[in-house]
Amino acid sequence: MKVKIRYCGQLKQAAGCAAEEVDPGGELSAQELIASVAARHGEPLTGYLLDESGRLRATVLAFVNEEQVDWETPRPLGDGDELVFMSAIAGG
Amino acid sequence: MIEPKSLTDEERAVYEWQMWVPEFGEEGQEKLKGASVLISRIGGLGGVVAYELAAAGVGRLVLAHAGDVKPSDLNRQLLMTHEGLGKSRVESAARRLRELNPRLEVEAVAENINDDNAAALVGGVDLVVDCAPLFEERFLLNREAKSQGKPLVECAMYELEAQLTTFLPGKTRYLHELYPEKPGWWKREFPVFGAVSGAVGCMGAMEVIKVISGIGEPLAGELLVFDLGEMRFHKMTLGSS
Which of A43, B16, B162, B188 could form a disulfide with B200 if both were Cys (CB 3.0 to 4.6 A apart)? Predict the structure, then answer.
């Protein structure tokens, strides 16, 4: 199974890439994949994505196939799904 | 509730092309003329929103932005000029808008949104546009708009990317509910091109026109995200809780 991951805003720099394709190696929920991505990348991305309790930070939104992920509701992933991380940005 | 205002012959001539848009017509133009809009900061984003709304014939604009024009404003803040360096941003902006549309009522407030002015500024308009660079201002403006039941168009940018959505009272969450915390890594100054702020500013102005006139479908419950580096546009569906 292949899942495409895209990083927006400052998360792009933290991840060191704009996009990547991963094989989760089995059936995972979006929440499990997010934790796995954070663990694989380590800092600084982990600190951008997850809070101290390992939940998605309140300053980051995650979407699977353009639908927002609710952290409390496990979101099963399928082959070809796209996971997008977006951070809050502002104006100027 | 916006009270439409009837048009003069001069206004019918100026707005003829947009009144040809199906579903908009003279009725839509009268709603724009009767509307008032607060724009928080009139820099790269808000300046373009203001310019497009002045051109479109919105009746009254309230511009809130402190400080004077700096050289580093001029790559994107299209209401500012080289001659205006060192002078009030909001006065420069008001002058440019009046040159474009002398019928426009402009209220220039040389302050950013703060605890002392937010309630009165939001209370004095029909709709709010958030273009501020600091999350403290954005959250304050959003809380006030939500509590007063005012629609709010939210514009943001970074590098070659932008985000745009519209918050509607009773129908969508507002910014402080979507992103409950300010990102610790956000900095007041950041990389961006004027063409990026201009693009999202034009789209933000269109959201205002749609909400006021009732044409089209505003981005309520959806976040438009685009990356002009790859010319990639996506409408993301936002959760309801």
Answer: B162
Q: Is the pLDDT of residue B241 over 70?
A: no
Instruction: Specify if A92 maps to a domain.
Output: no
Considering only CB atoms, which chain B residues are within 8 Å of A90? Answer: 132-135, 138, 156, 186
Provide CB contacts within 8 A for A6, sequence distance 6+.
Answer: A18, A19, A82, A83, A84, A85
Q: Is the pLDDT of residue B46 over 90?
A: yes
- Domains detected in chain B: 9-237 (3.40.50.720)
Could you read off the pLDDT of B115-149 as tens digits, one per residue? 999 999 999 999 999 999 999 999 999 999 999 99
Read off the amino acid at residue B56.
Answer: A
The CATH number given to whatever domain includes residue A63 is 3.10.20.30
- Residue A16: phi, psi to the nearest 5? 80, 10
CA dist A65 → A5, A30, A32, A86, B120 (Å): 10, 11, 16, 13, 41
The whole domain housing A31 covers: 3-87
With a cut of 90, say whether residue B188 has pLDDT above it: no
Closest residue in chain A to residue B196, using alpha carbons only:
A91
Q: Structurally, how many domains does chain A consist of? A: 1
Which chain B residues are Cβ-neighbours of A45 within 8 angstroms?
A: none
Q: What is the pLDDT of residue B4?
A: 98
Q: With DSSP H G I counted as helix, E B as strand and the rest as coil, what are the percentages for chain A, rounded to 5?
A: 25, 30, 45
B15/B167 Cα distance (integer angstroms): 27
Question: Chain A residues with CB-CB distance to B under 8 A?
Answer: 8-10, 48, 57-59, 61, 63, 66-70, 84, 86-92
